[in-house]
Every structure is written in structure tokens, then in C-alpha cells.
Design a protein that fits this description.
The protein contains seven helices and 16 strands. By secondary structure, it is of the alpha+beta class. It is globular.
């Protein structure tokens, strides 16, 4: 828990600075970190002389910056704290989220200085800290073997994030996490247990290493290297005592 304590300690420092300067912001936070930071204050409401909000550049962003604002005189202007870059490449080339993120990390850029990567048909958009936009524009010329072009866009020009969702209807012996993983990906119980034991499975964006953890309707699982699944619906029970479920599998 030391990293969590360090994170919250840094956020406390930002709140003090915000009260004095009007507005401060963290680097990009994961959903789990956002929940931890929200414990400092009430998101969207004034508390302890500052207002806390989260912004990742667009509605529904996964990675966001925690913004601390002194509402008495500070002003939050998103474009001052977030930059958007458009990544284009030839229509005949194929790039995925991992390809682009890997190319960015190869530049020596830390993960928490960039936000979401929003994929489109023949382009992508990247959120980043404003102070990095020039460096990325000048140095990010390839993702793997694919040549790319970078240009600045406004936050209003960001494409709407769309994720492909495949819905599966199945029955499971129980609502245990390993059972749901088996149904979602067609895994054996042994393989599901191995993934969980290896620390590759997160529940609601937090690492979970309990195969027997019982899931509730709406639970979101993330499996590193495989994708994300959501337990959309838990129905009735079959004559053999199995649960009818609908599971959504998100594209990678």
C-alpha cells in the first residue's frame, strides 16, 4: 500500500497548491487511482477549500487527470491541462492500440504522462500532457513498421470512442470469477486459475487474485493481454442448478 500512500500524499500537496494558485492537476490516473484520489474530497463538489474533478479529454475517458480547483478565484480551462494529437496512417496499414502505445513508450515517455488512445478506422487520437505534445509530434514517426503522421487537434475534435462488444449467452455453475472467465473466453478452469494466480486479472480495475470471488451483475473484469468482459445480466437457474448469464466481451 506504500504506492497508494505516496499517491495520496502527492494529491494532498496538489490540493494545498490549488488553494494558493487557483488550479493544479495530477498526471493521468488509472480508474483504480481515481477512486483512491476521490477519497480526498467529493468529486464535483467544494470541500476543504477546493473542488475535485476528473478530466480525460472526453466523456467516459478511462485515464483522467485529477484537477484541484479553488472555486473562489481559480478557473479550469481543459485545453491548458490536456492536449490532443491525431495519428494518421495509410488506409492499407493496420494499427492497434498496443502498436501505438508501444511506439510512444519506446520514446522514453512515462505511461502516466499520456491518457487514452482513441482508435478510429484509419486514424487514432492520443491525449497527453501539453508539455509533451511538441516532443511527441516531432519524434513519433513510426509505430512498428508503419509510418504515421502527428497533428494537433482540439478536444472537441476527438473521435467518439467506440468499443466492439460481443454478447455471449451461457450458463455457469456459479458466479465465481473463474467460472465467468471460462464462459467468456472458452477457457478451462485450470487456465482461468493460472491467469488469476499470475496477477493478470483485475476486477473493477483492481487486481483480484481470488478465483472464488463471487461476481455481481455489472461486474467488469480486465484480463491483461486478452481484453475486458462485463457480466451484463444474471438470469434464472436451470434445472441442473446452473445460472443463465449474458456476458459482454470487449474487443482488444
Amino acid at each position: 500500500m506504500e504506492s497508494r500512500d505516496l499517491l495520496l500524499g502527492h494529491m494532498e500537496d496538489l490540493t494545498v497548491k490549488a488553494v494558493k494558485t487557483g488550479c493544479t492537476a495530477s498526471r493521468f490516473l488509472t480508474p483504480s487511482e481515481q477512486r483512491d484520489v476521490a477519497s480526498i474530497g467529493v468529486c464535483g463538489r467544494k470541500t476543504r477549500d477546493f473542488t475535485l474533478l476528473f478530466d480525460g479529454g472526453y466523456e467516459g475517458a478511462e485515464r483522467t487527470r485529477a484537477v484541484f480547483l479553488n472555486p473562489d478565484w481559480g478557473v479550469y480551462e481543459p485545453s491548458e491541462w490536456l492536449s490532443a494529437l491525431k495519428i494518421t496512417y495509410r488506409p492499407q496499414d493496420t494499427l492497434g492500440h498496443r502498436d501505438i502505445l508501444g511506439a510512444i513508450m519506446a520514446l522514453g515517455i512515462e505511461r502516466d504522462t499520456v491518457g487514452d488512445i482513441v482508435m478510429d478506422d484509419t486514424s487514432a487520437a492520443l491525449l497527453c500532457l501539453p508539455e509533451l505534445s511538441g516532443y511527441i509530434t516531432e519524434n513519433l514517426t513510426k509505430a512498428g513498421r508503419v509510418g504515421i503522421t502527428i497533428s494537433s487537434i482540439t478536444l472537441d475534435e476527438l473521435p467518439v470512442k467506440q468499443e466492439e462488444l460481443t454478447v455471449k449467452t451461457d450458463t455457469v455453475a456459479s458466479l465465481r470469477m473463474d467460472a465467468v472467465l471460462c464462459a467468456a473466453f472458452g477457457l478451462s478452469r485450470t487456465k482461468a486459475a493460472e491467469l488469476i494466480a499470475a496477477g493478470r486479472v483485475s476486477l473493477e480495475h483492481q487486481l483480484c487474485m481470488q478465483p472464488a470471488k463471487e461476481l455481481k451483475e455489472g461486474a467488469l473484469l480486465s484480463i491483461r493481454g486478452m481484453g475486458r468482459v462485463k457480466l451484463l445480466e444474471v438470469g434464472g437457474v436451470s434445472k441442473k442448478g446452473r445460472f443463465f448469464v449474458r456476458i459482454g466481451v470487449y474487443g482488444k
